[in-house]
Amino acid sequence: MEFAARHTLGRACGVHGVYCLYAMARSRDLGGSWALARNRRKIPSIPSIKERNTSKQSKPSVVFAHGLWADGSCFSKLIPALQAEGHEVMASQHGLDSLATDVAAVKACLARVGSPAILVGHSYGATLITHAGTDPRVAGLVYIAALAPDADETSQSQQDKFPKTDVFQHIEVTDGRVWLKPSGIGCFVGDLPEAEQKLVYATQGVPVADLFNQKVEGTACKTKPSWYIVASQDRTVNPELQRFAAKRMKAATTEVMAAHVPMLSKPDVVLDLIRKAASAVAAR
User: In this structure, is residue 112 part of a structural domain?
Assistant: First the structure.
């Protein structure tokens, strides 16, 4: 009868059933109380999101935001190094269905890491950090070959002020989505090895056709310190647009001879700039 009762209790307790039975046996055999038996093993508490966001941390967190025809894996050459150096890191994943929901995705990742945080945006991902970066938890912004629309601009209207780049000769709109054709991968990531180019093409995130014409409020680069990497060989976002945007936001600027994805082709350069941003934020 006693065994049957214990067996029933163990099943009811699920994974904790073994510990429940252990506690019963120890309290009976040693003459101790239930409280003593339960307290023999303390389960460490997990800090809440609020506690993590208000706690002091030695290094700022980093949240990445990707652009079109990409996903969070485009930062795979940066994330392990930053984690090893003690940064909390997350890469936001965007559905590219609407600007508002993509900005919300960045803010959701921001809520999962400690503060202060640095937002790092590539291409259209930098439009997202420009809007999401007004959040008080954000202490700095890093732009990579990036758009950065002003308060009266959209991503599209900013691009329209500069000559159209080669990549737009290699796109196809199907079922309301803008696909990068195989012929355009060289315009996008032409300085990567062929195997990496194929991987980028295979994992492309595909936007709705009107995404660049959508608008959300917030221009964080007007009030937050900014850093910018200009990709001088870019055939996706015009390098002149990049230089103009960096100058307008008064960003600390690094120019690198790279195509549109320097975080993949020149990761050390990008890491160096993120480290500089992190050091500046930590010193404040």
Answer: yes
